Amino acid sequence: MVALSSLDLWRRASASGDGASGGGGHSYSRFPSDFPFHKRIPGTRFVVDGLGAQCAGDWSRAYFLTHFHGDHYAGLAPSWDKGMIFCSQVTGHLVVGALGVRRDFVVELAMNSVIWIDECQVTLVDANHCPGAVQFLVEVPEHGTRFVHTGDMRFTPVMKEDASLCNFVGADAVFLDTTYCNPKFVFPAQEESISYIAETIERMMLQEERSQQRTLFLISTYVIGKEKILLAVAERCKCMIYV
Questions:
Q1: Pair 80, 102: CB distance under 8 Å
Q2: What is the mean pLDDT of residues 198-213?
Q3: 16-53 burial, b for 16+ CB within 10 Å, e for fewer?
Q4: Is the domain covering 2-175 a CATH 3.60.15.10 domain?
Q5: What is d(CA 214, CA 204) in angstroms, rounded to the nearest whole number?
Q6: Residue 233 burial (CB < 10 Å; 0-12/13-18/19+)?
Q7: Who is most buried in 8, 10, 57, 191, counting CB within 10 A?
């Protein structure tokens, strides 16, 4: 079982760079009184999706990033040195490759495996959102507490069968993505939506062959998150996708 210390990792990362060494004694400052409660795991110094000036400071060296969307990684830059960024492998590659954060400050964690970080047990499970998106399951043995932080999560019934999630039934708190948590929102399954888009474009392309017209299909996207749609269209319509 893997056991990590965010402070030790941060000290080594700081010492290997151009900045001042993080060696020697270390004392944490207190969390600000107005620190966003939903970005901190109770009983720990773990900060989740809090990398900007308001959340990143000397009160923590353990920062957890659920996924690579701008509203969650805001604050990351090549100059980042506040602490260690714990995330999935996909997200870690993007943080380093796209944002230029030094790899020394990024720790890519395996999925569905218990990892000890600062004497707490952390497990990453899929969030069914964009590539690399995860939910963090945190157990704090010192206090006998358990917490689930979903990040941006798209619920699917298969999650009820996930062994790691099942172990957290009855958790002390769930930090839940409630963007569409309202009965008025009824969405089809992700697979159904993707199939509908691909079928619609295929049907229009077949109609164009008969009418000798050509339509430019634009699929709105951002950094990551629409790959499944693009692949489905390319495979079903046997066409090239230009980005």
A1: yes
A2: 90
A3: eeeeeebeeeeeeeeeeeebeeebbbebbbbbbbbbee
A4: yes
A5: 9
A6: buried
A7: 10
pTM, rounded to two decimals: 0.90
User: How many Cβ atoms are within 10 Å of 173's Cβ, its own excluded?
Assistant: 15
Residue 17 above 90 pLDDT? Answer: no
Cα dist. 167→10, 160, 228 in Å? 31, 11, 30
- The token pair at 72 is 């969650």
Q: Where are the domains of the chain?
A: 2-175, 190-237
For residue range 117-161, list pLDDT tens digits in order: 999 999 999 999 999 999 999 999 999 999 999 999 999 999 999
Neighbouring-strand partners of residue 86:
64, 107
- Residue (of 96, 91, 104, 84) closest to 17 by Cα position: 104
